[in-house]
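Severity: low
Component: inverse-folding endpoint
Summary: output formatting inconsistent between runs
Steps to reproduce: submit the following structure tokens with default settings.
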């Protein structure tokens, strides 16, 4: 047992904090207000090694680990509590790694260096209008026509549509589509590295629109209408019919970073509430002197610490599997920790924001109070982003009781 980060990890956190406190902290409110992460900032973050952290250097990544990626996601969440920049960061660490694991050499060579350097976006396109939780029931279809897959159907609530298709010159998603029969359910799905925009041009057969979300405005959420968009077979990730398994492995990795970003944002909110409890004087003393104010903060500090341990245990487990490749630890062993981290981190963050806003009182209900921007950011994960909370409970219950007993 050793509850310390390595020297390399500590140094990484220090350098990330130094960069973010100068480059991101002064901008985060305007990122939310203007609904835009500046392109220069994305580029700068790419140069500083914020993206594709676990991807080996020879593929354009940083040759790091999931622990380092979690540190980056946590710190970005802290320095942009609205979560926009954190979402950009966590997507562009987890999904490029899945491409690295299962993509063709050509697809990896084309996409990963662009993402790693901040010149390209690579997220996940799974959800459809009939319901995101039932991945095995998705309907977007892809079939070979003259040696090229043509994709038809609609993807909705997809993060990064504007960033991928308008802001940057290159962007796309790991897209899940049905290549088999509907009756084949999850076995009929294939994952594609869908490079929707390349060198400034958007692929034919793709229309898109941006949704009007209530928070985390700095990163867009949109709709992809696929009207025969072509995807060459070299962009199949993991083989035809293996898409469900590829995506589930990716969701495990993404959920660890989602959890890390949430605890970063929540740490910021808790610190704000603690400061305010010292400064706000009522009845001739700071409100921190009232146990009705200090006890909830104390309880949440404990919850945050416990959640942080869980999240970093998940990242450490991912490193045992993917980075250190320890014998006897398999991707399947990650499911419990990844789902538990996302479930717990989102609940903890929600409670921290609720209490922080009560601690601030009416000021928290104004934009100047700033907490509202963070609250609406973490709320995206309560509403469903990267998997509904109930689905996390199914995964944990399945690992606890046995998948065959939990449906
Ligand atoms: C801001 C934001 C960004 C997103 N970005 C992306 C993205 O980049 N890519 C992407 O693919 N998707 C994205 N999503 C979509 C996200 O993956 C879905 O919200 C999620 O999968 C849930 O799907 P749904 O919203 O359609 O809810 P539904 O699946 O319709 O579920 C509705 C409710 O039913 C509950 N429920 C469903 N099934 C069960 C069950 N068996 N037992 C008990 N309860 C159940 C759920 O918990 C939920 O409360 C994003 C969502 C948001 C809010």
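Observed output (run 2 of 3):
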């Amino acid at each position: 047992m050793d509850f310390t980060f390595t020297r390399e990890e500590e140094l990484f956190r220090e350098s990330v904090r130094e960069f973010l406190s100068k480059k991101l902290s002064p901008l985060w409110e305007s990122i939310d207000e203007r609904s835009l992460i500046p392109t220069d900032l994305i580029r700068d973050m790419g140069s500083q090694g914020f993206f594709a952290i676990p991807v080996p250097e020879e593929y354009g990544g940083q040759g790091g680990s999931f622990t380092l990626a979690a540190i980056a996601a946590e710190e970005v969440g802290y320095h942009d509590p609205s979560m926009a920049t954190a979402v950009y960061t966590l997507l562009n660490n987890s999904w490029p790694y899945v491409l690295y694991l299962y993509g063709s050499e050509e697809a990896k060579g084309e996409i990963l260096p662009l993402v790693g350097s901040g010149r390209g976006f690579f997220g996940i396109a799974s959800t459809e209008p009939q319901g995101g939780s039932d991945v095995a029931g998705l309907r977007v279809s892809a079939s070979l026509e003259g040696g090229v897959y043509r994709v038809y159907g609609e993807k909705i609530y997809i993060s990064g549509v504007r960033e991928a298709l308008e802001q940057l010159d290159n962007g796309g998603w790991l897209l899940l589509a049905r290549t088999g029969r509907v009756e084949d359910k999850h076995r009929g799905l294939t994952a594609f590295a869908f490079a929707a925009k390349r060198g400034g041009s958007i692929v034919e057969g793709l229309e898109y629109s941006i949704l009007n979300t209530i928070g985390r405005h700095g990163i867009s959420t949109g709709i992809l209408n696929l009207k025969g968009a072509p995807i060459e077979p070299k962009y199949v990730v993991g083989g035809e019919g293996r898409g469900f398994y590829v995506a589930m492995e990716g969701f495990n990795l993404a959920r660890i970073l989602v959890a890390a970003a949430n605890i970063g944002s929540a740490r910021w909110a808790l610190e704000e509430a603690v400061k305010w409890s010292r400064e706000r004087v009522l009845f001739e003393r700071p409100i921190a002197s009232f146990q009705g104010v200090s006890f909830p903060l104390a309880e949440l500090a404990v919850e945050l610490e416990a959640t942080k341990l869980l999240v970093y245990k998940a990242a450490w487990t991912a490193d045992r599997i993917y980075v250190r490749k320890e014998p006897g630890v398999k991707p399947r062993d990650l499911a419990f920790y990844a789902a538990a981290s996302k479930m717990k981190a989102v609940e903890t963050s929600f409670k921290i924001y609720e209490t922080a806003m009560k601690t601030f009182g009416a000021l928290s209900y104004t934009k100047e109070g700033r907490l509202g921007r963070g609250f609406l950011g973490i709320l995206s994960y309560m509403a469903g982003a990267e998997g509904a909370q109930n689905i996390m409970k199914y995964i944990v219950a399945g690992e606890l009781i046995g998948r065959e007993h939990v449906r």
